[in-house]
Amino acid sequence: MxxxxxxxxxxxxxxxxxxxxxxxxxxxxxxxxIIERNNVIGGVALHTGTIPSKTLRExxxxxxxxxxxxxxxxxxxxxxxxTVKDLRQRLDITIQHELETIRKQLARNSxxxxxxxxSFVDPHTxxxxxxxxxxxxLSADYFLxxxxxxxxxxxxxxxxxxxxxxxxGLLNATGLPESVTIIGxxxxxxxxxTMLNALEIxxxxxxxxxxxxxxxxxxxxxxxxxxQKDHGMNFYSGIKIQSILKTNTGTVITTLENGxxxxxxxxxxxxxxxxxxxxxxxxxxxxxxxxxxLIKVNENYQTDVPHIFAAGDVIGFPSxxxxxxxxxxxxxxxxxxxxxxxxxxxxxxxxxxxxxxxMIGKTETELQKxxxxxxxxxxxxxxxxRGQILGLQSGMLKILVSAxxxxxxxxxxxxxxxTELIHIGQSVIKLEGKLDYFLNNIFNYPTLAGAYKIAALxxxxxxxx
Length: 465
Hints:
By secondary structure, the protein is an alpha/beta fold.
């Protein structure tokens, strides 16, 4: 073991939270190092999660001609036969570009990256075991655990990464199947189900819980599920799975509790994720993880040991790349005496499904539970001029407005560019704006952003009653 080195901040994990923490620390004049167990930096967000799934989505929409079918019919295709090679080409280019960008950012800020598996020796020291068998010891005043999560793999499911896999394994597929069963209708399951459906693969989405995407506005969700069923997706919720068995021919049979059976070429399990903390030897630092291997933190992202922080997916909800980045920056600022409160109330949520769903603020369910009087305003994309120009056949923007002081309480969008459009609503909510902002301002025409004004006028009509 080499002589121990001392740092101001040691970051374990090179995903969004780890990168931003290290860079922020460096900009404060502190010496930071990132420990990454894999051979490449970037974490799940770059290699198996956020960037790959969103890149695949764009490739699928482009190659299938999905966005043009409103004009040219459902039989329209930009490319008649789409292969894994077609999809991988765009994916590899994007990942390589992002990887190079991250490397340059870290180099500009003089942040060292050490590849190896980190484990705590004591609360101020870690050991790093490298692939070549060597090891070294590092110490620091502060630590950030940002190791992320990995897909949950129940012991009773016979994963082979070919016919039975998870979202990570899907990215390594050598061919496109004709039929897929997806277990778990969380964000990841829904995103992949709609992408594969857009490829005209027969998709069956099964969710054992009756609550599908519980944080999504119920009216938006109803519209979304209707859209999926209209496009051929099979969807089942609130029913338990009895068994998952591989056949001699390589297919997979999923049997539900009610006796129904669904056979598909591939089964993708996307029900839950677990924290990557098992190799950290947290007990040596006076820490422990919960049954999902996640780490508990306070409002400043401190663990039970105050100089050890945790951020990103490894602390659980909301598990978004966007929030992980801000958590990482907040950790560095708080650790070195610069107070920073990360606004975890006005968070935009984005589901990059086909079509997209995005939201911010309160839902109707929440407002009803809190006995807040409100009105709704709605605009449908296909009824706007821009929606017609784009050939949109679905899409809705819905606002929730206080019936007493007209303050904007929530925005919920399903449809084209929902994850971009939501930021207009975010700004108004953050600045405690009211319905009048949309009523009294001029929007470019024709734009989908103009749907805010249409929805505002709709809400205004209810307020006049």
